[in-house]
Specification:
Blueprint (H helix, E strand, L loop, with lengths): L1 E4 L2 E7 L6 H18 L6 E6 L16 E7 L6 H7 E3 L2 E2 L2 H9 L11 E3 L2 E8 L1 E2 L5 E2 L2 E2 L2 E3 L7 E4 L6 E2 L6 E9 L2 H14 L1 E3 L5 H9 L1 H4 L7 H5 L9 H22 L18 E7 L2 E9 L5 E5 L2 E11 L2 E6 L2 E10 L2 E6 L2 E7 L14 E3 L4 E6 L6 E2 L4 E7 L2 E6 L4 E6 L6 E2 L4 E7 L2
Antiparallel strand pairs: 1-2, 2-8, 3-4, 5-6, 5-7, 8-15, 9-10, 11-14, 12-16, 13-15, 17-18, 17-24, 18-19, 19-20, 20-21, 21-22, 22-23, 23-24, 25-32, 26-28, 26-31, 27-30, 28-29, 30-32
Helix pairs in contact: 4-5
């Protein structure tokens, strides 16, 4: 059973909630018949599509369920860990990679079908560098922090580490995360918690969308058809409360004042924030997406800080900063957060998971201004087609440029009716993310 977007799987599980013993036997026999007809002798995967009527509560049920052959993969699949997690052979865990290699060497299987049993339930999520809020468009960039959560215990099959760079040359999958538990609900919620607690920062990922999907009541009820995302519409972005945002902003501000103190060249022995006269509070202007967060902080005589974030006021005591984070008692509650600064970005990982904050510039940067009507590249990639020339009249929604990036074609369309004023790219050009490809003057 799977959840997919763009006809690609992002959540897989075993055993399927729509497949009971009778239907499983029918599917298995169909797969064996196909393998015999092909004379196939190796590890492999046979895939079928099962009619929605076989779902829990469906009209047909298992006995009358209709299924269709989809494809044969003469290899292990990305989702093979969920099979390994639930299958036992004579009470022992199954290693499918080992079995595939043994078969390739001409050795027979050391067990029969009667030795195979199922134990509990497993769910796997594919962690991708992509933006669910922008139609799951793949993302690129550096992995500034990758720290799998130590608890709850799950399996991480990762292709990244801190410092890795995700480019346009390969599929954007970063890791597979697999949870096993006695029941399906426990496995799904364990996986959601592990993903939520893991630290993956520096580029946009689908992690928050995966967490929301795994906790969606329809998913937990087993209502997981291939149109699940379009039909159920799980939240594509996490919405933090003002209090959660302010907690992250306080952590960033307290960490930054500690860094400023460590970097001081003069009077380093003085406590942070010390003044010999009454002065206004220090401030740090931040933004979390479209939400502005003005943080004010002022040192207190007891070594703590008075903090203000919008209308939210707090007192921080027992403040201990370190190069990679801060530990503080905030309004009587202990908060520990890792903080990483990358340019204007503060990447905070604390009690509410990953939060990215951006320091607002004191003065506007003229280089960041986009020409009116400019069509930008959503990511680095190669230009496949340019379908307009300077002087052409175009309509809103008309595809003007086709790009290739991360194994996908991207059709970029005009945002308004108008006339093409300038074209800045040609076929086969390699462009950076955010590059202006052409400019359309809107019709007034």
């Amino acid at each position: 059973m799977l959840i997919q977007r763009r006809h690609q799987k992002i959540i897989e599980e075993a055993p399927s909630p729509a497949v009971g013993p009778e239907l499983r036997a029918r599917l298995g026999e169909a797969a064996l018949q196909l393998a015999r007809a092909l004379g196939y002798r190796s590890a492999g995967t046979v895939e079928f599509l099962v009619d929605e009527a076989a779902q829990p509560g469906g009209e047909a049920g298992e006995a009358g369920a209709v299924f269709w052959f989809l494809e044969v993969n003469t290899r292990l699949q990305v989702e093979h860990p969920v099979t390994e997690a639930v299958v036992r052979v004579a009470g022992q865990a199954l290693d499918l990679v080992r079995e595939q290699l043994r078969v390739a060497m001409g050795e027979p299987l050391g067990y029969g079908q009667g030795d195979v049993s199922l134990d509990g339930h497993a769910v796997e999520a594919r962690l991708y560098a992509e933006d669910p809020g922008n139609e799951f468009l793949p993302a690129t960039g550096p992995v500034l922090a990758w720290e799998p959560a130590p608890a709850p215990v799950v399996r991480y099959d990762s292709g990244i580490e801190t410092g890795s760079v995700v480019g346009v040359e390969f599929d954007p999958m970063l890791a597979k995360v697999i949870a096993h538990a006695p029941t399906r609900r426990e496995a799904a919620l364990r996986l959601a918690l592990a993903l939520e607690r893991s630290r993956v920062q520096g580029l946009v990922t689908n992690r928050d969308f995966l967490v929301a999907t795994l906790r969606e009541p329809a998913f937990l009820d087993g209502d997981t058809t291939t149109d699940f995302i379009d039909r159920v519409q799980p939240p594509r972005r996490r919405q933090l409360t003002p209090e959660q945002l302010c907690t992250a902003a306080f952590a960033a501000a307290l960490w930054q004042q500690g860094e400023n103190r460590r970097a001081a060249r003069e009077l380093r022995s003085l406590p942070s924030g010390w003044r010999n006269s009454k002065m206004p509070a220090e401030r740090l202007d931040l933004a979390a997406g479209e939400t502005e967060l003005l943080v004010r902080y002022q040192a207190r005589r007891d070594g703590g800080f008075a903090l203000c974030c919008g209308e939210h006021e707090s007192v921080a005591t027992r403040v201990a900063t370190r190069p990679d984070g801060v530990d503080v008692v905030l309004d009587g509650r202990r908060v520990s957060a890792s903080v990483l600064r990358a340019g204007a970005r503060y990447l905070v990982h604390g009690p509410d998971g990953d939060v990215e904050l951006v320091a607002k510039p004191r003065f506007p940067d003229p280089r960041s201004e986009l020409p009116s009507g400019g069509l930008q590249s959503p990511m680095p990639g190669r230009v496949l087609e340019v379908r307009a020339a300077a002087g052409d009249r175009v309509q809103k929604g008309q595809v003007l440029v086709v790009m290739e990036a991360m194994k996908m074609e991207h059709h970029l369309a005009a945002a308004t009716d108008g006339v093409v004023a300038a074209v800045h790219v040609a076929v086969d050009d390699q462009v950076d993310g955010g590059a202006v490809l052409l400019v359309v003057d809107a019709e007034g």
